[in-house]
């Protein structure tokens, strides 16, 4: 994985100094809260309901054990002993004191980490496939391009006071594990007929209160022009986006208002102007970055067979372990969704343990997934049983990956000042209702996503089943949505009808799953059945 | 409105005397040499007339409105070498990126502490990307 050189380190160290300076000026009153707010947001520091929340960047979700241990250290020293892994492959801490924020950034900088542009109207942490470099189905490792984007977009002088936030995702596999079409820019590495690498460029996706699946804006962008083309799209948006209504300022609205054809035309014109100034990163620099992502020294001649005699282990093996490109290796998913837990939360001790296990069993590498789980990407099949035992002893062996209890949920009204309703208790009740793992496995892949307000941080639009918490005359109310997907079959979920109480929506989810069990045909997932039979049978069961 | 007493300038030439006129007026008056762009006005409309422009003032109605950064870069990329002034809600923490986008003069609505400005303008030893200043991106330093 990528290692900082003197330049990267000096830039991140300077950021710590700058933020310490800004914080001191805020505390002295030299900066007003209005003036300070965008500055702290560009360092991931939000003011929540009870305290400051700090979001730490984990670029494209990749980190090593030293960095993971630092995340545990911060949880212990500055927070309440836990952290929350997020849908942008980051981690956030919920109980931060403003005065300590510069010290946290200084601690992070000692392990090549930061909180730069994890919030605010800036280019956010670039996300990618959590199986990058390990997946059997990728055409190459997408992370060198993600790192190139990270650097080029860090402190970009033209694009740091954007109309709204801006999110970029990169993948290199047909199975889309990074929800690229729900990003402002989604990039998929492909080869053209001549065998050259390029990107399919999707622009204008997003969730929030006006969700869109991004259209394909350019079918093939030569890899060497990645950054200039992104700059062109950013510049068109920065210049012509609405600035009068915060809810209509994302690039998806501009793409929609101009129309795909006109937006594409404007980006192409701008791109020609930008190309003349040659802002693209040269191939030599890409090659330097790519060298950090060379595959680890996989052993050869390893056994493929795994002893399945322990039935609990076998269940986990079937559910949470995925195919690796190297013979004798596997990809291990650590679910942060135990029944009754808070989706995405991990204690400092669990964080340390995962770091230890990565060091011992996975070439010192971990990944954070947008579904708020952790991945050990390179595990010998021969080590799987020992690894599972260690995870199981720490409450980290929930065998529910991609099942109904593998829920994405935003922090909701328990923490968030924007929320209208709580998300966490709904997630816990649904996980409790479906606690029987056999029942979950019978339902198969079922992506359930919960947001506590219309901003959609819990990705409810992209859930096979989505739940949206709203405020109805002062009480929490939950709308149910069906048929969304953030994967390669991206689609937006549709609302079933009137909303429910907290318990009512759990009942409604159960009724929807019963319709699926009744109507499904061979091999269909929940979302496939929904797409075939439509909303009506579900509505009848839920409201009838 | 900006108070002239608060202005900061990073140019050696004499300040331009002529007041900046609106974009419409500038395009109408063949002898105008100073123009003010409001946020959201198209800087590219000035490009055919750059030979006669000596001052472009770009308005920042709110410091969070970043349209002026793109306007500045477009003018510099088109070869404009005259004074480029940021006017309005211009604060010390935004000066560095404004300088990188080509602004060389500032007319802030509230005074800027020159010591803080000096400190923040020099706080980053390196930059990751080329812009319209003379800072060299790290990829160039890495590869010579």
TrEMBL record, chain A:
DNA repair keyword on record: no
One family name in Pfam for this protein: NIR_SIR_ferr
Cofactor: [4Fe-4S] cluster; siroheme
Domain of life from the UniProt record: Bacteria
InterPro entries: NiRdtase/SiRdtase_haem-b_fer, Nit/Sulf_reduc_fer-like_dom_sf, NO2/SO3_Rdtase_4Fe4S_dom, NO2/SO3_Rdtase_4Fe4S_prot, NO2/SO3_Rdtase_4Fe4S_sf
One Gene Ontology MF term: metal ion binding
Any one GO biological process: sulfate assimilation
GO cellular component, one term: sulfite reductase complex (NADPH)
Keywords: 4Fe-4S, Iron, Iron-sulfur, Metal-binding, Oxidoreductase
Domain Nitrite/Sulfite reductase ferredoxin-like: from-to ranges: 52-109, 342-394
Residues in Nitrite/sulphite reductase 4Fe-4S domain copies: 119-272, 407-542
SUPFAM superfamilies the record matches: Nitrite and sulphite reductase 4Fe-4S domain-like, Nitrite/Sulfite reductase N-terminal domain-like
PANTHER family found in the cross-reference section: SULFITE REDUCTASE [NADPH] SUBUNIT BETA, SULFITE REDUCTASE [NADPH] SUBUNIT BETA-RELATED
Name under which the protein is recorded: Nitrite/sulfite reductase
Species, as recorded: Sphingomonas gilva
Organismal lineage: Bacteria, Pseudomonadati, Pseudomonadota, Alphaproteobacteria, Sphingomonadales
From TrEMBL, chain B:
Listed name of the protein: DUF934 domain-containing protein
Any Pfam family matching the protein: DUF934
UniProt source species: Sphingomonas gilva
């Amino acid at each position: 994985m990528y290692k900082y050189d003197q330049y990267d380190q000096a830039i991140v160290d300077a950021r710590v100094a700058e933020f310490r300076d800004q914080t001191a000026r805020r505390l002295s009153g030299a900066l007003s809260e209005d003036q300070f707010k965008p500055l702290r947001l560009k360092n991931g520091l939000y003011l929540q309901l009870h305290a400051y929340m700090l979001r730490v960047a984990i670029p494209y979700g990749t980190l090593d054990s030293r960095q993971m241990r630092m995340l545990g250290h911060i949880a212990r020293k500055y927070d309440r002993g836990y952290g929350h892994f997020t849908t942008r492959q980051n981690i956030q801490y919920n109980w931060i004191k403003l005065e300590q924020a510069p010290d946290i950034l200084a601690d992070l900088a000692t392990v090549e980490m930061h909180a730069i542009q994890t919030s605010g109207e800036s280019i956010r942490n670039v996300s990618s496939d959590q199986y990058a470099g390990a997946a059997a189905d990728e055409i190459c490792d997408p992370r060198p391009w993600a790192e190139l984007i990270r650097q080029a977009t860090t402190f970009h002088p033209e694009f740091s006071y954007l109309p709204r936030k801006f999110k970029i995702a990169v993948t290199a596999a047909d199975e889309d594990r990074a929800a690229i079409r729900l990003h402002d820019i989604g990039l998929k590495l492909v080869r053209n007929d001549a065998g050259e690498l390029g990107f399919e460029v999707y622009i204008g996706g997003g969730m929030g209160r006006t969700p869109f699946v991004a259209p394909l804006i350019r079918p093939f962008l030569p890899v060497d022009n990645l950054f200039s083309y992104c700059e062109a799209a950013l510049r068109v948006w920065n210049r012509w986006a609405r600035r009068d209504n915060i809810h209509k300022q994302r690039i998806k609205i501009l793409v929609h208002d101009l129309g795909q054809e006109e937006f594409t035309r404007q980006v192409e014109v701008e791109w020609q102007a930008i190309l003349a100034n040659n802002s693209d990163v040269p191939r030599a620099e890409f090659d330097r970055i790519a060298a950090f992502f060379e595959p680890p020294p996989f052993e050869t001649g390893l056994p493929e067979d795994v002893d399945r005699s322990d039935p609990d282990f076998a269940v986990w093996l079937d559910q949470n372990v995925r195919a690796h490109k190297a013979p004798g290796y596997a990809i291990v998913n650590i679910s942060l969704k135990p029944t009754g837990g808070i989706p995405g939360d991990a204690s400092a001790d669990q964080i340390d343990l995962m770091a230890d296990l990565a060091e011992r069993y996975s070439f010192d590498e971990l990944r954070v997934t947008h579904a708020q789980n952790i991945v050990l990407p390179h595990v010998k099949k021969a080590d799987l049983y020992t690894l599972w035992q260690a995870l199981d002893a720490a409450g980290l062996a929930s065998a529910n990956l991609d099942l109904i209890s593998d829920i994405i949920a935003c922090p909701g009204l328990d923490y968030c000042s924007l929320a209208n309703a709580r998300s966490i208790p709904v997630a816990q009740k649904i996980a409790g209702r479906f606690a029987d793992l056999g029942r979950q496995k019978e339902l198969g892949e079922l992506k359930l996503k919960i947001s506590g307000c219309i901003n959609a941080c819990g990705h409810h639009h992209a859930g096979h089943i989505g739940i949206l918490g709203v405020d109805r005359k002062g009480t929490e109310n939950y709308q149910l949505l069906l048929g969304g997907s953030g994967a390669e079959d991206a689609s937006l979920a549709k609302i079933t009808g009137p909303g429910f109480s907290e318990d009512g929506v759990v009942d409604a989810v159960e009724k929807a799953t019963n319709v699926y069990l009744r109507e499904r045909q061979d091999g269909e997932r929940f979302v496939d059945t929904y797409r075939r039979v439509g909303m009506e049978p579900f509505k009848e069961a839920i409201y009838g | 409105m900006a108070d002239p007493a608060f202005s900061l300038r990073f140019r050696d030439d004499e300040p331009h005397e002529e007041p900046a006129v609106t974009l419409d007026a500038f395009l109408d008056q063949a002898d105008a040499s100073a123009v003010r762009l409001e946020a959201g006005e198209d800087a590219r409309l000035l490009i055919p007339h750059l030979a006669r422009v000596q001052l472009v003032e770009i308005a920042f109605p709110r410091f969070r409105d970043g349209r002026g950064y793109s306007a500045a870069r477009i003018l510099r990329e088109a070869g404009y070498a005259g004074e480029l002034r940021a006017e309005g809600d211009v604060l010390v923490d935004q000066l560095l990126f404004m300088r990188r986008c080509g602004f060389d003069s500032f007319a802030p609505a509230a005074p800027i502490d020159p010591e803080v400005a000096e400190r923040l303008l020099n706080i980053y030893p390196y930059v990751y990307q080329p812009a319209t200043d003379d800072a060299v991106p790290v990829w160039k330093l890495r590869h010579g």
